[in-house]
Amino acid sequence: MAYKAKLKEFDLVLEQDIIKLEALKKISFHGIPDDQSKRALCWRLLLNYLPEEKALWNSVLTEKRNLYKQFIEEMIVMPGENEGNGDVTAGDHPLSINPESQWSTFFRDNEVLLQIDKDVRRLCPDISFFQQPTEFPCEEIVNSCDMKRLHTRVQRSVMNCANVERRGLGITKIGIPGKKMSEDYAPMEEGKEAHWEVVERILFLYAKLNPGQGYVQGMNEIIGPIYHAFASDPDIKFREFAEADSFFCFTNLMSEIRDFFIKSLDESVHGINTMMNTLLHRLKNSDLDVWLKFQQQDLKPQYYSFRWITLLLSQEFPLPDVLRIWDTLFSDENRFDFLIYVCCAMIIILRNQLLEGDFSSNIKLLQNFPPMDVQVILTKAVELSKLKLF
Amino acid sequence: MAKKTYDLLFKLLLIGDSGVGKTCILFRFSDDAFTTTFISTIGIDFKIKTIELRGKKIKLQIWDTAGQERFHTITTSYYRGAMGIMLVYDITNEKSFENIVKWLRNIDEHANEDVEKMILGNKCDMDDKRTVSMERGELIAKEHSIRFMETSAKSNINIERAFRELADAILYKTAGREPGDNVDRVMVDRKPTSSSTKSCCNH
């Protein structure tokens, strides 16, 4: 379909006072136009952040964005900062053994933060977006003289040392080591912050609010594309609140895929093992040769599809392709069943190579999926889904 | 079917806390390059490199694992098949060193009893940020009778050597299984066993 016609189709659905989610899903399944803020808006709807009734949008957005602000105020605090003048509350100090103490919480939080910090610095390294400063830094944080910046809490500070050499009487040579290497992700100056710092804050708040689950590696790869879509929205009125909006959309999305991230749920109905078994089953029903080859080589789905499924394919393709695939995944009536068809299609598309290859080359191929037009994969996935393999 | 281009296949595994540099070590060894821009490993990753040791072509199949607790069930399933395991910590990260004991316990629980182990203290180029002394690394290795080396994937220190030594130890052990036999003889013995379970040329 011509691009203009496609835009028009979206306009038609989106200009209704009450948006028909079914209709939106139907057209979004085939890809959401990249410009005119369409994707960010549609994702907000598809992820159930914005209600179908347009008249409610303003109040919902205001409420949620204020709530997010409140989260920051309540949860990103330095112990002791709320204490009155000189009144050090008895029992609350850095060495307190009371697990409820502000300081204990602070140290516990920093453990989580340490992991998040490592991962957000490793987010989408092939594009520079996340290292760029955001236009809308969180004022309260960036003007706190670094006190509230999350990454400074887990920065390991080192004391400068010098080599002291004594040579004979009274002669001391002090050698000071040369200057340090510059940091790859140098902190921004006061008043500025980079996109990765914003993502770090979103993940930290999510971990604080979901203590049973906490932060699990890979969540960074889920929030990344959402935040990118929202923070590059051409509409400044939306772009300004990319942080709060992506936090809630991420939370909603996580509520659906949470089980992938919890070890104890691996065997449950929506757990990762069930998903991988479904994939294998569908592969068997659609391409027995490849399935047999995998059996023969003892090539287990854990070797490749664990990451595919857990991260909704976000590490397998370049970002623009991930956005396109997610349009379809988010529009899936039975979220995230279609994902399994996409995975299945990915394997079948490589069938000739897989049937030729040995164990090593096959694993390599599946773990480093060759660049290709994702439309080909999605079309194949639709074809498979119509076969009713399950 | 691909022609068999090696004499022996060794399966190795890299484990250790998140962010200690496992992927970088592997990348340095397999591609002789270094980059700080790695995404975090989710689940398990995989590389192949063929080296020559004592006249034998040895294909190393190396599995790189995710460090975080969540992935342990998925990664411990690879312990069983591993012939060599590298335990990596970061010399600028005390916690990652303390956890070596935990990783050793994991090996005891899940790996073959005779698996060859080696401890690596990575990032030894960052001496100005060091918090774990070389002596402490040596001590813990000695306590558990494991080989030890400090490495730097960035400055390419000891990476190649670490893999070769680990492979050599496995080779030595493989050869030593049949007392009085030389390596060649053992290999002839090994071939049918591995191909009877599953076709060995696929690996």
Biggest sheet overview of chain A: 2 strands, antiparallel
Q: Given this structure, which CATH class of chain B is correct?
A: Alpha Beta
Task: Classify the helix fraction of chain A into a percent range.
Answer: 40-55%
Main structural class of chain B: alpha/beta
Largest sheet of chain B: 6 strands, mixed
Structure description:
The complex is a heterodimer of chains A (390) and B (203). Chain A is an all-alpha fold and 390 residues long. Chain A has two domains: 1-76 and 100-158 and 185-260, no CATH class; 266-387, Ypt/Rab-GAP domain of gyp1p, domain 3 (Cyclin A, domain 1, Orthogonal Bundle). Helix content of chain A is 53%, strand content 2%. Chain A contains 19 helices and two strands. Chain A has helices at residues 3-14, 21-28, 38-46, 57-75, 102-120, 139-142, 150-153, 195-209, 219-231, 236-239, 242-257, 272-286, 288-297, 305-310, 319-330, 337-349, 351-356, 359-367, 374-386; strands spanning 163-166, 172-175. A two-stranded antiparallel sheet of chain A has the order 1-2. In chain A, helix 8 crosses helix 11 and helix 9 runs antiparallel to helix 11. The longest helix of chain A has 19 residues, at 57-75. Chain A starts with a helix and ends with a helix. Chain B has 203 residues and is of the alpha/beta class. Chain B has one domain (8-176): P-loop containing nucleotide triphosphate hydrolases (Rossmann fold), CATH 3.40.50.300. Chain B is built from seven helices and six strands. In chain B, strands 2-3-1-4-5-6 form a six-stranded mixed beta sheet, sandwiched between helices. In chain B, helix 6 crosses helix 7. The longest helix of chain B has 18 residues, at 159-176. Chain B is globular, with a radius of gyration of 17 Å. The A-B interface holds A 115, 118-119, 122-126, 156, 158, 161, 177, 180, 184, 216-218, 220-221, 261-263, 266, 296-298, 302-303, 306-307, 310-311, 315, 357-361, 363-364, 367 and B 1-2, 18-19, 36-40, 42-46, 48, 61, 66-74, 77, 92-93, 128-129, 131, 198-199, 201-203. Chain A: GO terms for molecular function: GTPase activator activity. Chain A: It comes from Dendroctonus ponderosae (Mountain pine beetle). Chain A: It holds the Pfam family RabGAP-TBC. Chain A: InterPro entries: Rab-GAP-TBC_dom (IPR000195), Rab-GAP_TBC_sf (IPR035969). Chain A: It is found in: Cytoplasm; Membrane.
